[in-house]
Amino acid sequence: MAADSRGPLSGLLVADFSRILAGPYSTMLLADLGAEVVKVEGPGGDDTRTWQPPVRDGVATYYLGANRNKRSVALDLKDDGDAGLARELAARADVLVENFKPGGLARFGLDYDSVAAVNPGIVYASISGFGSGPGGAKLPGYDLIVQAISGFMSLTGAPDGEPYRAGVALFDVMAGLHATIGVLSALNSRHETGAGQHVEVNLLSSALSGLVNQTSAYVAGGVVPFRMGNSHPSLFPYEPLPCADGELIITAGNDGQFRRLCEVLGVPELVDDPRFRRNEDRTANRDELRPLLVARLRTRSKMDWFRDIIGAGVPCGPINTIDQGVAFAQEIGLDPVVTVGEGAAAIPSVRNPITFSATPPAYRLPPPSLDEHGAEIRRWLAAPQEERA
Prior knowledge:
By secondary structure, the chain is an alpha/beta fold. The protein is 36% helix and 15% strand.
């Protein structure tokens, strides 16, 4: 099988033994950049094929969102013949990505040690919920559980309300990005040494790293953060503020931006008020400053203020729905929606967020149906390795 793109990762073969989101998202990014990704699914297919509604032409949009540019083969690892084909794929691959429970692939001869014994150049990426150590290996790795256990949910929601999860599987996505970084780093190391290695990523570590200033507040400062609604613990204004017809996010992240905000709002006297002169003053006295800003903002609509405040060089933005967010990206020239595939099989998808001056991402293959490329892949795996295209 030959890749039909000359992206920056063209020529790499990725064996994708992952499912749901973190692994598939990682391998989709690699596929966008030219890698040849073979998605290995069990007889029932990736779980997200059934995570619906919503659907497009009967296919779950959840699955569609993380599986473009891949070829699918259904292999029952409990079947000796299929397991043999899976091992052959691993032996030929440059990269293998899996998110089985730690140790779960060992009985099929598909664990890192077994694969590396016949393919020492393999970059083998394992994604788990809580790591492969004895304390975490048996814990189920679902994003919502990690949002809870990591402390993230303790920060999300109204100060006097219940904890909330994020509206997306945040740490699955983050772990997928970390896995991609790990794979690319290990490939670079392989250029120097010729040897692959085992890359491990877990959702809890990704969460604790991704909580950046909040985890730093505790580990470096001994402070346990708490829910503040949409307020920021270290900046003000940095939250939604009410206008005449709705709220506008305003983020004056430094003294210069605060000065320009006060000028456009018509309250320049606030700039030199000792209560608000520096960021730390504004943060400490936010309850006094907020009503002074709101009194001006309520005199006009949010979009009127948006145009003027942005024009003054102060970051701000309306709180959009998803359709409005996509429309705004289109309006400012980001072309967020691409067409993947051709003809009746083509589907709209969200553009890969990375741009390259010479080797752009490609959108070759729509997300595959289960075992769509099974016959082709089985023939290729059954042929002697030197005959592969």
